[in-house]
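Holo prediction — MU-OXO-diiron.
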Amino acid sequence: MNNEFFSEYEYLSMAAYFHAENLDGIANYFHVQAQEEHFHAMKIFHFILDKGGKVELQQIAKPDVMFKSNIEVFEKALAHEQRVTKSINDLMDEAIKNNDHAVNSFLKWYVDEQVEEESSASKALGKMQIIGGKGEGLLFIDQEFAQRTFVPPAA
Ligand code: FEO
C-alpha cells in the first residue's frame, strides 16, 4: 500500500516537471497516472480493513525530483513500474507459500493491472524516443496526452 502511495508521489513529481516545461498535456498524463496509483493504494486499504486487519499508515518516501531530460522521466516511469511488478509478484509468492487464497485472489487483479501498467509506460517511452524527446513531435504528444482521463478500473 505504501508503495502505491509512493507511486502516486512519483507521478505527481513527474507531472510537476512537465508543468515547469510548459507541457501541460504530458503533465496531465502523469496526473492521471497518479490518480490510478491512489486508486491502487485505496483498494489495498479497504481490503486490509475488510479482512479485519489494521491499517497503519507509514511515512511516504520522497519521490524523484531530479530529471535530466523529457525522455529520462519516461525511462524512470517504466523502471518504476517494473519494480512495482516485482513487488506484487513477491507478495503473490508469499500468498501462495502461505496458502492464503483470499490474498492470492485479491492480488490477481494487480498482476493483470501491472501488465497494462508496464505496457502503457513502455508505449509512452517509445513515443518519446521516436521524437527524441524534443521538437514539434513533443507538441503532438502533449496534445495526445492532454486527452487522457482517469477512469476507475473495474474492481
Ligand atoms: Fe500501481 Fe502503476 O502500479
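READOUT: The chain is about 75% helix and 0% strand.
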